[in-house]
Amino acid sequence: MPDNLEYKYISEIHVFHVRGEFTSSILHQLKTRITSEVNETGTYGVLLNLEEVDYITSKDLGIFVQIFRFLKQKHEAEGVDGEAYLALSNLSPFVHDVIEMTKLESVFKIFDTEKMAIEKLK
Questions:
Q1: SS3 assignment, position 88
Q2: In the prediction, which pLDDT does 72 show?
Q3: Closest Cα to residue 61, out of 43, 88, 35?
Q4: Class of domain 5-121 as given by CATH
Q5: Mean pLDDT, the chain, whole residue set
Q6: pTM
Q7: Please, which residues have CB within 8 angstroms of residue 115's CB and are 6 or more apart in sequence?
Q8: DSSP three-state, residue 89
Q9: Mean per-residue pLDDT, 94-115
Q10: For 111-115, which contacts have Cβ atoms below 8 Å and span 24 or more sequence positions?
Q11: What Å distances lie between residue 71 and 4, 46, 53, 68, 94, CA to CA?
Q12: Bridge partners of 64?
């Protein structure tokens, strides 16, 4: 995993810290790692801590939507308990504004901090 992508598994939540700019490589690594971890654990909750991300593009948001769809479809296909979600925490003002403008706050769970997200999601 690249240096600007860190992974932890906390309270059945896949937590990824993303640092810096999203590149095609980082987005690919993120999708691959999420798929791998979800398949391995059978849990469908993912939290992206974007504390160190200042900028996001529509392409990045498109990848987030793809990840969300994967989580929902996999969860529904397996018919297991629990919830499938993609949550975001620690958003910069710019990233938060972009998500609001694109109306994606109704798709993703948004939290001020990672700690708050983990407490609410577990």
A1: strand
A2: 95
A3: 88
A4: alpha beta
A5: 94
A6: 0.94
A7: none
A8: strand
A9: 96
A10: 111/47, 111/87, 113/89, 114/15, 114/47, 114/49, 114/51, 114/89, 114/90
A11: 23, 9, 23, 5, 26
A12: none
Strands 13-19 and 5-10: antiparallel
* Per-position DSSP letters for 3-46, written without gaps between them: TTEEEEEETTEEEEEEES---HHHHHHHHHHHHHHHHHH---EE
Residue range 63-82, pLDDT digits in tens: 999 999 999 999 999 988 88
Strand arrangement of the beta sheet that strand 45-52 belongs to:
5-10, 13-19, 45-52, 85-89, 109-111
If you count them, how many residues does the chain have? 122
Tokens found for residue 49: 């801590």
